[in-house]
Amino acid sequence: MANTYRKIYLQIVFAVKNRQALLDKSWRHEVFKYIAGIINQRDHYSLAVNGTNDHIHIFFDYKPHELIEDLVREIKKASSTYIKNKNLSPFKFEWQSGYGVFSHGYREKSIIINYVMNQEEHHQKKSFRKEYMAFLSSYNIDFKEEYVFDFLE
Fold first, then answer.
1. pTM, to two decimals
2. Per DSSP, what are the bridge partners of residue 46?
3. Which of 77, 127, 129, 150 is deepest in the core (most CB within 10 A)?
């Protein structure tokens, strides 16, 4: 019987509920490390986890033994609980309900890792809203803008 071979790189993007700037710079990298650990414990392989004060990018080597929606739900649930239990945020912390997931090829791996790890620099030039809408458009994803995120202006 022939073996099965696959390499699937995914980038997941989601925001803090109402895009509130609650991911404080003083502790967010601790949460990003925790999220990388969740991914690895679930037998995927974390390549880059980073973000800014209102959203996160996760780039990882996906193993298709688990539905993406189940993985995202567990990441959000566990990381929200972690933030609450460690008293990291003085405010009620929640992730927004939606997310985006985008696939990448092997040859893009280092480019995407660099992109994810340089989020603060990137967002000095481009807002999260513009970035996310560009993702959706470049991947030819049909969407209604009013349902994408609750963007606070």
1. 0.90
2. 60
3. 129
